[in-house]
Design brief:
heterodimer, A: Arp2/3 complex 21 kDa subunit ARPC3, 80% helix, 0% strand, elongated, B: alpha+beta, Thrombin, subunit H, 3 domains, 4 helices, 12 strands, 26% strand
Chain lengths: 173, 293
């Protein structure tokens, strides 16, 4: 049950951070894609199923706040959560390289998807421009913010595991 | 091992089911925007109290920031503003005269409704779009406050966008600088109609949006284009737009380029609204009369 609440609460605060708090800070030009980062991290930590469900939830939240069509972000983030969930077998908390690579790759993937569906199909072919001005800053910023979020989530997850172990022991005794 | 394999299979099935549902939702909401409103309402219940709070905290910090400006700056600003007030007062006197003359003439022509004051309501911006690719924002008023989709949104003196989604207490606005935004515009000086489109790229480059299809005046065969568009010309929404009320200021022409056909101009416009620091907006409660209404 702890896992569910962890996902739920982090998605809630992730949405607030991404849609309300970061846009309010005047100096910041690029907004980190925290909800995408969360679905990647949950996929890595808990496996395919949690990855894709948190991806869908995060995606629907993104869709609602971008206010155009529902389903696009849910689709992409569900896929991303599922794929990062398949790396759950080789994931262990001390390995920082895997989450970093997974985050960067999925943010790039997300960027290319968005470019393709909303810009390329409209006859806008300036992909190099979008890569350097939109995708790359977003990637860097997302990874920087997610490092902190990731450490926090690991810590919380450890606590949940710890408590569950203790309860389990008590039951056995 | 066997159990593991079964779980793998069921995972894949769930994934496919979700993706399929997403595609259905996509198609459904793309063709019919009101279909998604229950979702918006649910999100509003969960998020808007927090967002309103964050907005208040943000305003509080902005207030502190303002208080810390130096006295020298304020004195200088005060002096500048006083000059501006004098100048505006003078202009205002002239304008009041002209307005009364105009209303007389309009009455004569039976045009009095055209320019009548629109009913408006103020609102706070409580959330921005969810990423870097789109330019939409959420305001803290919704259908309970009389907001409907298709209403025009102003900020300061200029056009900011149009309401695309409404829930009871919040509404989503697509701004005119969004890449998919398209406004039918008119050059105030000549009355020529053309198109203004939002652009992510040019907004990033130099805070401007694009225009196109502005006709080169054909009246003069000698190539005299002095009557044509110039840098600094005001651009407003046109009468023939089916979504925007006429005469709302969009911005000022920044660059002018003749297209290779030599028949039309295109270039960039600096929006009248400062989209970087959008905090309060004004929603016009009157909607453009639609065909069939």
């Amino acid at each position: 049950m702890g896992k569910f609440w962890l996902v739920f609460v982090s998605l809630f605060f992730g949405t607030l951070l991404q849609c309300s708090i970061f846009p309010m800070i005047p100096v910041i030009q690029t907004i980190p894609n925290i909800l995408l980062g969360l679905s990647v991290v949950f996929g890595l930590m808990y496996g395919k199923r949690t990855g894709m469900f948190s991806g869908v939830a995060a995606g629907i939240l993104l869709d609602i706040f971008s206010g155009t069509i529902i389903g696009y972000n849910a689709f992409v983030l569900c896929l991303i959560g599922y794929v990062s969930g398949s790396f759950n077998d080789v994931f262990f908390p001390e390995n920082y390289r895997l989450p970093l690579v997974a985050l960067s790759a999925s943010d790039l993937l997300y960027g290319f998807f968005t470019y393709f569906f909303f810009f390329f199909t409209q006859g806008d072919y300036k992909i190099v421009y979008y890569f350097f001005r939109i995708m790359l800053p977003e990637l860097v910023f997302t990874v920087i913010v997610m490092v902190f979020v990731y450490l926090l989530l690991l810590h919380l997850d450890e606590k949940i595991q710890h408590r569950r172990n203790r309860e389990g022991n008590r039951r056995i005794v | 091992m066997k159990n593991n394999g079964r779980e793998k299979k069921s995972n894949r099935r769930i994934l496919l089911a979700i993706l399929f549902l997403c595609v259905i939702a996509l198609v459904f909401t793309a063709s019919n925007s009101s279909a998604s409103s229950p979702l918006y309402q649910a999100a509003e219940v969960v998020f808007s109290p927090m967002q309103n709070g964050i907005n208040k905290i943000g305003s509080f910090f902005l207030g502190i920031n303002n208080q810390m400006r130096s006295k020298q700056e304020l004195l200088q600003e005060n002096k500048d503003l006083q000059d501006q007030v004098d100048q505006l007062q003078e202009e205002n006197n002239v304008l009041v005269l002209q307005t009364s003359e105009l209303s007389d003439l309009q009455q004569l022509y039976g045009l009095s409704d055209q320019y009548s004051n629109y009913k408006t309501t103020g609102a706070y911006v409580i959330a921005k779009n969810s990423g870097n690719w789109f330019d939409t924002f959420t305001i803290n008023k919704g259908s309970k406050d009389g907001i409907e989709t298709g209403m025009n949104v102003l900020a300061g003196s200029g056009l900011a966008g149009i309401v695309t989604e409404v829930s009871p207490h919040t509404a989503t606005v697509r701004s005119i600088i969004d890449n998919s935004s398209d406004v039918s515009a008119m050059l105030l000086s000549s009355g020529d109609n053309f198109f203004v489109t939002g652009s992510l790229a040019s907004m990033n480059e130099d805070q401007s949006i694009l225009y196109s299809d502005l006709a080169v005046s054909s009246g003069d065969a000698s190539g005299d284009t002095s009557g044509d568009v110039k840098e600094g010309d005001a651009v407003v929404t046109s009468y023939i737009s089916d979504r925007y009320l006429p005469g709302l200021l969009i911005g000022y022409v920044k660059t002018v380029e003749k297209d290779y056909t030599n028949l039309t101009y295109s270039g960039t416009i600096t929006p009248a609204v400062d989209f970087q620091h959008l905090r309060t907006v004004l929603v016009i409660l009157d909607k453009k009369q639609q065909e069939g209404d």
